[in-house]
Amino acid sequence: MHSKCTNWPCDCVNLLVIYHPAHVVSCIRTVKTTTWFDEHLTEDNQEYMRKSMAQEYRRQTVDKLNPLKDEPWQRHDWTQGSRRVGLVAVKLGMAPVWTKAGERHVVTMLQVQDCHVIRHLSKEEYNGHTAVLVVGGKNVSPFHRSEEQMEMFRNAGVPPKHKVTTFKVSDNAVIKPGTPLYAAHFRPGQYVDVTAKSIGKGFQGVMKRYGFKGQPATHGQTKTHRRPGASGPGGDPAKVFKGKKMPGMMGNIFVTAYGLKIWRVNTKYNVLYVNGSVPGHRNCVLKIRDTVLPTRSSTLLSPPFPTYFTEEEGDLDEDLYDDNLFIHTDPSLTLT
Amino acid sequence: MAACAKGLDKCMFSLRLLRSPRLQNERFLSTSLGRLAPKEPSKFTPPPKPVVIDKTQTVAAQRKFLSPEFIPPRQRTDPFKFVIERKDMIRRRKVLDIPEFYAGSILAVTMADPNASGKINRFVGICIQRGGKGLGATFVLRNIIDNQGVEICYELYSPRIQKIDVLKLERRLDDNLMYLRDALTEYSTVDPDMNPVPFSLTEEVPVNKMKVRMRPKPWSKRWERPKYNVQGIRFDLALTPEKMEHAQKWAQPWREYDMLKEYDTAQLEEQILSEVQQAMSK
Annotated region Disordered: where (chain A) (predicted)? Predict the structure, then answer.
């Protein structure tokens, strides 16, 4: 492994910091010793580790407030131009809904699973313009997370999360790390933007990727049916412009769907019913936030600011519906 | 215990015989012989099982029928999604009574229609297909009105549907009767004013083994091919045996041995049926 390094034993990683001569630089240790959590444990101990971790994290998720630091932070009122946090949710599937006029729409169900605020970075710490809240969703096992990530979760007093994202937030909407976030943060009738990684399609040709028309199947076409054809003007630029649409990897990129209406919120199971389709496969983790579109921003609805706290706002109905939505317990429609 | 009982028996017998010698007729002897011959104790016959008549449940609820749209498809979806969808389906079923029916039954559906006079629209037809799962489940009704074939696809859980009546409950040899489009018109005509045929809930649903005559080819689909698996067409009148053999070229005999395509829903069905019946009875 370290054939080039003849003088030193394998403490190269430490010594590299002190000695800078060029012939030592090649002696970089590429394979770091990694052990998985159960390599040196007996089977009983492995079981115990799994169970104890799961119990502790369940307890942490259920706790409303971070036990380390007791008081929540100061709550401010909503002002024009303030932005509040978003949520991290899991895409469950799709279902039809009907309005009171009898129109049929499709809806995606997003479940907010174990969403917690993890960190707060003030304006100065982040980029000098806006404060930021780091939010995580969907608990995951700690055994495959690195130490740095685990430190961050430990500081917040929160189990390790599958997805950790940042939300740009105005200063009056700042929330204390460790607070759980629920689906009732959004109300029916509101509009949201949903961001997720689209389904990966792998290396795809230009017809599927960009919708090119290709070439005809017959009439003498020699081995050319799905090719891009010409790639640019010709002799004048004598080059192919940057950004030319060519075959390549398609999908598996972050895509945002804007202006999706929320039809229904289930507060018991934390499920949001969002209009239309959403990028990502089933059971993928997504990021939801209030719309950026100016024509769909709702000041009339007054959603909970900075977020929905169960202790303060107490009992909401199990299902919150939009005004136009047909509820299944109502009698059948009679259109007049 | 048995031995002394036997001994006692014999003593009793001999005493009885001594007491009344004139009663020693054949009958007595035969019975005594019959009794003395088997030496082992008499076999224990358990009492007959009591027949339980459950009067708390209605006869309708006792009928073990689970509508096919409750069975979730074999997908990578979280089962929780089917749970919440089922809750909505049950809520709708408590308001609108969706009866049991199969492909081949004759139904009448009353629907709210903004374009109809009186805003109500009643259509009677034979159900040719039941598709979809969950809240988006559909069924297609076919009828011939004024020499024009009409098919309407209704959604079972749509709020515009006000009533679903089963005029005749029966099954056919297939689950999918799309071939009625290529059959003679008499097989798809249903009288819009027909009276409902009474059906008692304790009986099994009758299977109508009718085989349908077809119009001359070409048909909309090649129904003779094994992938459609159509039992209810009279192929002997429509096609020659050579053509039937030629159609068998598209057979896929390996499909029945493909284990990856197996989807055993028996346990799921039981579980969902008990859940649905409990929720409906509340």
Answer: 214-239
Which pair of tokens denotes residue A28? 């970089």
In chain B, residues with a C-beta closer than 8 Å to the C-beta of A96 are 135-136, 155, 157
**Any idea which residue has 């009983």 for tokens?**
A44
Query: What is the pLDDT at residue A308?
Result: 86
CA distance linking residue A327 with residue B192, whole number of Å: 32
Query: Which candidate from A92, A331, A335 shows the least CB-CB separation from B80?
Result: A92
pLDDT digits (tens, 9 = 90+) for A276-292: 999 999 999 999 999 99
Q: Does B162 sit within 8 Å of A334, measured CB to CB?
A: yes
The HSE-up count of residue B245 (CA atoms within 13 Å, CB side) is 3
A3 vs A19: CA distance, rounded Å? 18
ipTM tops the 0.90 cut: no
CA distances from A44 to A56, A325, B146, B179 (A): 18, 53, 77, 62
B122 touches chain A (CB under 8 A): no
Using the Cα atoms of residue B171, residue B173, residue B178 and residue B181 in order, give the sign of their dihedral.
negative
Q: Does the distance separating the beta carbons of A326 and B84 come in below 8 Å?
A: no
CB contact under 8 A, A329 and B114: no
3-state secondary structure of B211: coil
Tell which residue, B96, B251, B142, has the closest CA to residue A334. Answer: B96
How many C-beta neighbours within 10 Å does residue A182 have? 19
Interface residue of A324, A332, A336 to substitute, partner B, most B CBs within 10 Å: A332
pTM: predicted TM-score of the whole model, two decimal places: 0.80
Q: Which helix (H) or strand (E) holds A313?
A: helix A310-313
Alpha-carbon distances of A135 from A115, A118, A174, A177, B192, rounded to whole Å: 7, 5, 12, 9, 61
